[in-house]
Amino acid sequence: MALIVDPVQGTGTRHVPRRGPTSFADAGYCGRSFNEGVLRFHDATTAPNFRDLCHEAFPELRRLDRKADVLAFDWSGKQYLTAKIAGSKDLTILVADIGTGTLETLATVAEFAVVLKMDNMRDFFNAEAYDQWRTHVGHPDDGLAFTDCVEYTTPLWLGGEDDPTNMQLIDMDVSWTIGTQLLTQTRAAQL
Asked: Which of 1, 74, 107, 126 has the smallest number of Cβ neighbours within 10 A?
C-alpha cells in the first residue's frame, strides 16, 4: 500500500532539508507519520537534533556533503538524508542506520518519491520485520508515537541478532544519542 497518513503527528512545523527538495514539505509531509509509523517525515522540531546526531555518528558525511540533512526516518530509527554527492547531478538519499552502524546510498530523491507511491512501499522499509516485532510484543495493530522507534537491544555491530527478540521500543532521541556515543567510542578504540 502507498502512503497512508496516521493520526500521530509531530509538534513542529515545516522542514526543508538544506539542499532541498521542497516537494515533501509542499505536500504536507513534515511532522507526519505514515503506515502506522513505518515512515515519518522530520519537522522543524526534530530535524536539527537528528541532523547533528547523524553528522556526529557518521563523520564521513563531512567528506560526502557537509550540508547533508535529514528528511525522514523509519520505524527502526533509520535516518533518510538528502545529499549532493560529487559526480552525481541528482540529489541523493542516504540512509544512516545507528543500529547497524552504517551509512549507505539509497536512491535519488526522485526515485525515493516514486517508491512512496508504490503499493508495496512498506517492503522498501523492511516493514515485515516491524510487523514481526509488533506481533512478538503483543501489539500487532499499534503504531508508534512520532518520536519512538524500535531499536536493537544489542546493536548488530556489537554482535546483536537481527531478530524481534533483540528489539525494543525506545525514544528515538535516546536511541540515537546512546548509539552515537557507543559508535564513536568503538571507532576510537579501534584506532
From this structure: 1
